[in-house]
TrEMBL record:
Species whose genome carries this gene: Bacteroides intestinalis
Pfam families xrefs: Metallophos_2
Domain (Calcineurin-like phosphoesterase): residue spans on this chain: 1-207
Domain of life of the source: Bacteria
Name of the protein in its database record: Metallophosphoesterase
Entry GO CC: cytoplasm
């Protein structure tokens, strides 16, 4: 299976359109996997959800993120700043009923297990200990709870990486090692790796071929949509990738 992995669009339609155009130009994927956070931080949450209805590539996993959970459940206390709570409240007040129903009834819980090309694949928005809010950073990937999976694919931290971990295993044929590949595709709409452009991953699960892609988009057009009542931090960060 050839798949597109993406996460954390965060209501940035310009970035998402740039990614879709890049995919069409470069690849012929069998499927797409979304790791959560379509909404919030940006100004076009409804538009992202509506745009997803027109994407022709099958979406075989569509995880909720912590921002979907916060807006539906009202759990604003988990945000680390007051501006984050204000932003979430603003987004919630602008969501239409179609978007609310989509989040409630279509998007999946943030930890899903799939078998792809004979591989055991764990999909997460966050981490295995906290699928919504946990941060699966490179420093936490040696947790033995991940050992049973061939691939662990996560979002949430907005920083792309691919790392192989070789766990100890009772398998003399493989020199008593078990490989687990960890992948984070980064963020489509709000990267935090000091690269402001839209980011996603193409992977061929059968061969292991993996491409990390970075796509320019019109950042200023997206920034211009922010109203004055929203902290300028959220528009300014787009041009720095922070």
């Amino acid at each position: 299976m050839k798949a597109i992995l993406f996460a954390d669009i965060h209501a940035n339609l310009s970035a998402f359109e740039a990614v879709l155009a890049d995919i069409e130009k470069r690849y012929r994927p069998d499927s797409m996997i979304s790791l959560g956070d379509f909404i919030d931080y940006g100004m076009r949450s409804n538009e992202i959800i509506q745009r997803m209805q027109d994407v022709k590539i099958p979406l075989i996993a569509n995880l909720k993120g912590n921002h979907e959970k916060a807006l539906i459940d009202g759990e604003l206390f988990r945000f680390s700043s007051e501006r984050g709570r204000v932003m979430s409240t603003y987004t919630r007040s602008h969501l239409n009923q179609f978007s609310i129903d989509y989040i409630d009834n279509v998007m999946q819980e943030p930890m899903q297990k799939l078998e792809i090309d004979g591989y055991n694949v764990l999909l997460l928005h966050g981490s295995i200990e906290d699928p919504y809010w946990g941060k699966l950073t490179p420093s936490k990937i040696e947790d033995e709870r991940y050992q049973e999976y061939d691939y662990v694919i996560s979002g949430h931290i907005h920083q792309p990486f691919k790392i192989d971990v070789f766990f100890k295993a009772d398998n003399s044929t493989m020199r008593n090692q078990k490989r687990t590949t960890f992948i984070n595709p980064g963020s489509v709409g709000q990267p935090r790796n000091h690269n402001p452009f839209a980011q996603y991953v193409y992977i061929d699960f059968q061969t292991g071929e993996t491409h990390f892609n970075t796509v320019p988009y019109d950042i200023e057009a997206e920034q211009a949509l922010f109203p004055e009542e929203i902290d300028k931090f959220y528009s300014e960060r787009l041009k720095f990738g922070i």
